[in-house]
Amino acid sequence: MKPSEVSPHPSFRIGVIADTHGLLRPEVFAVFANVDHILHAGDVGGEDLIDSLREIAPVTFVDGNNDDSDGYDITRVTIGSLRILLTHILPRPHEPRREVRGALPSVDLVIFGHSHLPHNEVIGGVRFFNPASAGPRRFDYPVSVGIIEGTEVRHIALDERSKAALDQRMNQMS
Predict the structure, then answer these.
(1) Are 107 and 76 in contact (CB under 8 A)?
(2) CB neighbours of 28 closer than 8 A, spacing ≥ 6?
(3) Contacts 24+ apart (CB under 8 A), 30-33
(4) Half-sphere exposure for 35 (CA within 13 Å, toward CB)
(5) pLDDT value for 168
(6) pLDDT in tens, 5-61
(7) What is the distance between the alpha carbons of residues 50 and 138, in angstroms, rounded to a whole number?
(8) Domain 13-169 is in which class?
């Protein structure tokens, strides 16, 4: 399996977003056009943002530590045959917290947020993916989202500056 792929499953196009902190950039609507489902990995910044995403496609989300939650919620969803675990605080792919670690045998993909850093890595047969932040820019971090299409999982920069930042900041959570 190539590093940018997940296990084969029926062709679905899934948008992945995190750490919006109440800011839904117009670029997200273009990138998420024609997605079948949207996954938000927390620090949403309000129900109105989820309602706006629902105008594009059905949304599954977890609350983050800035959403009047501790950020440790876990939601599981299966899209096609892709078994997904969605959480906000992991904290690290090589050292996930106990609740996530216990679920790994029954998932194909773990989607997380919180760090604002992009991540796309297979560990022990499970892909760990953080789309980075799509909200207000922090430091020199990228502003991006993710797309899962067929077996491909990739980041999409939402502005020019973020293209280089994706490469520079990728997989620093390892």
Answers:
(1) yes
(2) 15, 17, 53, 134, 145, 158
(3) 31/145, 31/147, 31/156, 31/158, 32/56, 32/57, 32/145
(4) 26
(5) 95
(6) 555 455 789 999 999 999 999 999 999 999 999 999 999 999 999 999 999 999 999
(7) 22
(8) alpha beta
